[in-house]
TrEMBL record:
SUPFAM superfamilies: NAD(P)-binding Rossmann-fold domains (SSF51735)
Domain NmrA-like residue range list: 4-213
Protein name in UniProt: NAD(P)H azoreductase
PANTHER family referenced in this protein's UniProt entry, alphabetically: PRESTALK A DIFFERENTIATION PROTEIN A (PTHR43162:SF1), PTHR43162
EC primary class: oxidoreductase
Length: 289
């Protein structure tokens, strides 16, 4: 069986879909070539699972060409830092040259040319790049990861989830990173599976107040500028801080968002698993600790 290339396989600070996907594909008996940026402590578990680990910069064309050699199906993701469009360009060129037939790529729920955050607009540009390459791209437009929300909740005084989202009735669409990976696994384990080029992934819908309580916290609103300053220090990335500050502000403006979001059937359809609710995620997280 030909291996699947998984980029971002070491996992990052947002959701680690590449790490989840590597484990899920290997669990299905599908060989994985795992591309990671840095050969650090996160690489050892990948090798222990049986992944063929390659190290290199996703923005470097020669690195990506070598990683894609002999590959027909691949997963594309990039952390919330600078260099996203550069990486997509290198990946698209190399994938076209090497004859890749299916690429599953992570995008964002509201990606579009007029989207309200720079990262969302970049996601739309990346979608166009991968589509133009003619490499069978499928874009998973994912909601806010449970993991990202929980990570913020774990900071500060431990009793409050502090976000610039207005009142506690503000609505938030959510999804588990593992569910995004399950959908990707279903589409990559059998590349003949038919699918629309854009798939929306929302697994739960919560008000921010309910979400905070589900994570064992209270909720506190904060002004966007103050949160942005905190995020610059917390994430160490102006790109991530700017994107997330604007993202929370969008939800704040949308308010209760009645009817704007819905749990999508694709998680069950392609991932073979009911959506993981935030309560499911929180319960599993508690057991793991």
């Amino acid at each position: 069986m030909e291996p699947v290339l998984v980029t971002g396989a070491a996992g990052g600070r947002q959701g680690s879909t590449g790490r989840h996907l590597t484990a899920q594909l290997l669990g299905r008996g599908v060989p994985v070539r795992a591309l990671i940026h840095t050969d650090d402590e996160r690489a050892a578990p990948l090798r222990a699972l049986g992944a063929d680990v390659r190290v290199g910069d996703l923005r470097d064309l020669e690195t990506v060409r070598a990683a894609l050699d002999g590959i027909r199906a691949a997963y594309f993701t990039y952390p919330v830092i600078d260099g996203f469009v550069d990486a997509a360009g290198a990946f698209a060129v190399a994938a076209r040259e090497t004859g890749v037939e299916r690429v599953v790529a992570v995008s964002q729920l509201a990606a579009g040319p007029q989207a309200l955050t720079p990262r969302m607009r970049q996601h739309w540009v990346v979608e166009q790049i991968l589509d133009w390459a003619g490499i069978g791209a499928i874009h998973l437009r994912a909601a806010v990861f449970h993991e990202n929300l929980a990570r913020i909740a774990d900071t500060g005084d431990g009793d409050l989830l502090t976000l610039p989202m207005g009142p506690d009735t503000t609505t938030l669409p959510l999804v588990a990173a593992a569910d995004v990976a399950r959908v990707a696994a279903g589409l990559l384990a059998d590349p003949t599976t038919e699918a629309e080029p854009v798939i929306l992934l929302t697994g739960d819908i919560q008000t921010i107040g309910d979400a905070a309580r589900t994570l064992g916290r209270g909720y506190r609103d904060i002004d966007p500028d103050t949160w942005h300053r905190w995020a610059l220090d917390f994430y160490g990335s102006p790109h991530a801080a700017a994107h997330l500050t604007k993202l929370w502000e969008i939800f704040r403006l949308l308010g209760e968002g009645t009817g704007l979001y819905q749990v999508t059937p694709a998680i069950q359809q392609y991932g073979g698993h009911p959506p993981t609710t935030l309560a499911d995620y929180a319960a599993h997280r508690t057991r793991s600790h």
